[in-house]
Write a structure and sequence with these properties.
alpha+beta, four-stranded antiparallel sheet, about 20% helix, about 35% strand
């Protein structure tokens, strides 16, 4: 099993959710986060005064999937999130040793 974590633009989350559900995904966790990478933030104008926005809003999407669908999920995230611009986001994959459903005690892929 793998944990796929993706940082994407917030307005892409609904499209991403729909596409992943079509692939058989059964759940995901989404958090509103702020950060910066190569995009480095930007300058905005508010009531005539310029100010720097260092941390940009992003959505952190976390899904635990069976090894057999990892590549399909990554491909979907890339296709939906890619606008061809700096700040489109990042994806990283982490090995998951065990998953346990608290309510039933199911383990492994049965708990996903």
């Amino acid at each position: 099993m793998k944990l796929i974590t993706a940082l994407v633009k917030p307005y892409k989350v609904d499209d991403l959710r729909e596409s992943l559900l079509e692939q058989g995904l059964t759940g995901m966790t989404v958090s509103e986060v702020k950060g910066f990478g190569r995009q480095k933030g930007h300058t905005e104008l508010y009531r005539g005064a310029e100010y720097v926005v260092d941390f940009l809003p992003k959505a952190k999407v976390e899904i635990v999937v069976d090894d057999s669908i990892v590549e399909d999920c990554i491909r979907t995230i890339q296709e939906i999130s890619n606008m061809g611009k700096v700040g489109d986001g990042k994806i990283w994959v982490t090995a998951v040793e065990e998953v346990i459903r608290i309510r039933t005690g199911e383990k492994g892929t049965d708990a996903i």
